[in-house]
Structure formats: structure tokens, C-alpha cells
Amino acid sequence: MSPWVQKRVCERSLTRVFLIMEILGSTFDDSVFEESRNRVSAALPAYEPKLCEPLWFCEDGNVEDPLEEQKTLKFRGDLAYKRKQYQVALDEYLSCLSLIPAGNISVKRDVLEGIARCCCHLGRKEEALNACEKLRTDVSNTCHLTCVLQLELSVHEHYRDLTNSISSLQQLCCLHPYHPWYWLNLAMSFQRLLESPGCPERSSTEEEHEKQQGTNNIIRLKTIMCLIRARLLIEILRIQQFSFVLENSQRALQDIEEALHVLQPTEKMLQTVSEVMAEDLNPEKMREENQDGESLSGLYIKDFDDKWWNKLYTKLQEETPDLSMHRPLEETFE
């Protein structure tokens, strides 16, 4: 196409654009087509950046602006927490919390998390959990809920509260069913519960012994269930991994095999558990159910036992009619 023809095509295209703009009531401002020398340049106001010295927020002095006072207290609390001065940090955070406007949810979340962590280190478990509960009231999406659950988990783990740690991990597994590390952590928590002094192998009476045998069997099966689920997920993700991430996955798989070796599940048991825990593990379903950042409005999160354990237990009963939790599992799955 010759230059002259190209010019004519461009002119016709521009004409069509102008006609459409006139029909829609839109036009270009004439100043757009003026020569640059004819345009009036507006003088920009002088910009004077605020200069802050290191640790400027530690300086004593009256701060009249509530927003500046809020920032100062928040930064002081963060610095004190970093220095492990937890009581000082807690005092600063509490003072800051009273100044935060109702609409500033993000800063409020940060400060409440700081309060929870300080109380945890200071041995004030109930106050730490109360701060976590306040955080729950402002939760609006799955990311916020995940942060709250992880914070609660850290408090329970700090006080070696296995039962509540398991509860937090179960909620995380329901919220993120394809997160292998939550499943592995949950499996290890179940295993510690199984090995804890609170689960004796022998009881004083036969009735107590049967009851304890049933409890131990359930915990053992849940441990195996979580280990299998973690193994399946890691094997899926391992295909796309490299370097140290791949090494971590391989190490985790080795830990899972060692844990299963200790629990000694039968081949039949492993096969049944694997079938149940792999039912939803296909790429399409995993993409559809990815809830990262999803609004909690209208989102229904099933209870862990309803979603996983009851399904497995029903399957085990179908395949093993004489299943009994009051005698060793090896006798049932021979």
C-alpha cells in the first residue's frame, strides 16, 4: 500500500471516529490540537517531603494530630515487640487501639494481633484468645479468617494445648482442603495426642479399657487419614516444584512414610483411606474450590468430621461390616 493510500485510510478512520463521538455527545477539547507553545502551563505547587529521622516515633513530645499519635504508638509497639519488651509493646498497642477510627479495619487488625501475641508471651492466654475473638468479628474474607486461625493456632501451640491446636488445624483444613502442610501438621498433632500420657493403653476396668481402645482407634485412623491426604497433595504439587521447595517436599514424604510405618496400617486400610481422601483431587475441582481471598458472605464451611471423618468411617463400615472401634484395628482389617 502506497503512502498516499495509507494517509487516505487514516483520514477516513479519523472521520468515522469523530462522527461516532458527535452522535454520542462526546468531542475532543480544542486544546488537544493546539501547538505546544500556545498551551498555558500551570505552575505546580512546591513539594516538600517530610523528613523522618531514625526512630523518630520514640521522641517525647505532645502530638496534637490523633492520626500522628496513632502512628507513633503503633510504631513504638512494633519496635518494643521486636526487642521482646512485651509489656511495653502491649501498653503501646492498647493506647493505640483506643485512637483507631472505626473504619480503619486494617490497622485495627494489626494492633489486635500485636496485643494477642504480647499477651501470649506474657502468660495471659485468655486475653490473647479474647483478642483473637475480636479479630473474628471483623473477618470479611478467607484470607482474614486464615490469619485469625493461624494466630489462634500459635497461641494454643505456645501453651501446648493439643486439643485446641487440633481444632484450629481442622478448621484450616476445611478452609484450605488442598494445603498439604495443614494436613501434615494436623496428622502430627493427632500422633502426639495418641502418644500423650492422656491416652493410656490400659485402664483399670474392662469397660474403661474398651472405651479407651475406641478413642485410640479413632485418633489412629484420623492420623492415618491426614497422613495419606498430605502425601497425595504433596505428590500432586511435587510435579511443579524445583530446588529447595522440592527438597522440602521429598523430606516431608519421607517423614510421612516413617509415621505410617510406626502406625502400621494394613494394605486394605491404606487402600480404603486413599480412595476416600483422593475423591476430590482432580485439577478442575481443585481450581473451582480454591477459596483464597473469597468473601465469607454465603460461604459455607463444613465441619471437619462431617466433611472427612464421617465419609471415611461410612466407607470403612461398608467394606468391613464387622468393624469395631473397641478392639485393635489389625483384627478388623486382616
TrEMBL record:
InterPro entries: DUF5588, TPR-like_helical_dom_sf. Pfam families: DUF5588. Transmembrane segments: none annotated. Gene3D superfamilies: Tetratricopeptide repeat domain (1.25.40.10). This is Zgc:101716. It comes from Cyprinus carpio carpio. The lineage of its organism: Eukaryota, Metazoa, Chordata, Craniata, Vertebrata.
